[in-house]
Amino acid sequence: MYGKLHGACLYGIDGVLIEVETDLSNGLPQTAIIGLPDSAIREAVERVRAAIKNCGFKYPSQRVTINLAPADLRKEGSSFDLAIALGLLTTSGQVILPVGERTLFIGELALDGSIRPVNGVLSMVDLAKREGFHSVLLPEENAREARLITNIRIYAIRHLTDLIPVKDHAQYTGGGQPTDLSSNPVPLPAYDQSMNEVANQMIDSVSNTARQQVIIHSYDHLTQAEHVPLREEKEIISSMEDYSDVLGQLHAKRALVIAAAGMHNILLMGPPGAGKTMLIRRLPSILPPLTEKEALEVTKIYSAAGKWKESSPHLMNIRPFRSPHHTISAAGLVGGGGIPKPGEISLAHRGILFLDELPEFSRHVLEVLRQPLEDRNVTISRSRAVFKFPAHFLLAASLNPCHCGFFGSDMEHQRCTCSPAAVARYRSRISGPLLDRIDLQLEVSQPKDWREEKESLSSAEMRRQVLAAQAIQIHRYGKLPFSWNSELSGQMLRKYAVLEQSAAELLNQTMDTLGLSMRAYDRILKLSRTIADLNESEKIKASHVAEAIQYRNMDRSSANLLEG
Asked: How far apart are CA 29 and CA 364, in angstroms?
């Protein structure tokens, strides 16, 4: 006897459709799972066997072969338990599922038949929708996450016996009142008691009468989850820290507005206590909210990584802010593992990756950022497969100007004790190629007149400027596959970043003076384009280029150190 149902697993952060084929044949009772399963899937045999028996069904006393197709794809996780159990029950004729209903089955089984949640449900349900499935059966704990996908029916179950219509419970259990399992807030004791009674009745009668076949005509008796819209923008903004808390630092705030308006990488350099970390941690408060498409991308990554918060029933339309410690490994930053999982740069997708005290990170760890900053994705190769994770993020970093932290300070009590060679050695921990990829490099000094400042520039005012510049970019790029100035390259950069004659001359002169690379030239062009958008100027003027050049502080500082 042969049967086939559909399950799904994760491949990187994407869902993959898997055919769960079941074959029952004569021979010694044994069960084999084939199709490159991992240990968790091979152990599913014992979980499924116990769950089937404890729910009053009979595990087939035949030779059982379970194939997970395609057979050449490595599978991992416990999401196939439900599909395997129902495949065995339908193939052995104990259960008949609805005809004409194309359903995806996801869930891990407990030994008593309870359905436990799994990671990556959002990617799997999104795949089911694209593949034309009508419905998805999954654990109740995953229902809030799954209902973020529209136009597909989501049925939530807590126990394998939830599939049995209530009207059939009396026949199935051999008489008596059916147990309403779905109304019990603490299911395990109720399930243990009712299932033990069922098992005893079946054992007593199995030699005398045939078991009643369970026919499920539809899943309408199950709880169907409803779609939840995006969170309101006002609700998001009100929960964030505000730039009005930061007194002074108008120059740094201007740079942060430019970074947010064009999604440009930014680096703040200054002495301890200047407010570098405080400034960057408030950057999410002026970024535009995620679009629904972007929110789905980000939430899928967090779902696959097991980091989606059940407390929030909404898509993640707040741009991520990730701030890993400087002891992080290269694999922790870009992703890794036997079957790779997303790293910090993927968790920061469409948001901000903040590296505080940049020189304290390992040189090797920092260098792995170079390719993702250019390609906006990271590729991890393994012997059996190649995984590609999205990594389109805004890199924000901070550092002290030297080892003691007071190089260039004009404060009497903050004199630098580092020699020029020590300063150069400290800054050399950050390679030139990595610095080239950071558009804004800004020195932040201690604010002096902050006591006299009565009112500081707030996040709301800065955000208005950012949204106005973003609207210009959306209109300009229309249906092109990008929407930020920082994504311009090649011909598109030459087309949309048109310099006036005086601006071109200024930029060429700066290139010769500072010895900038061609990559730095392109970065200044992109930055100038964003500054022009903030000033509502179609063409890039000399003043825009001049402002962009002044944000290349590390280039100028390196040149001064070499001259010294």
From this structure: 54
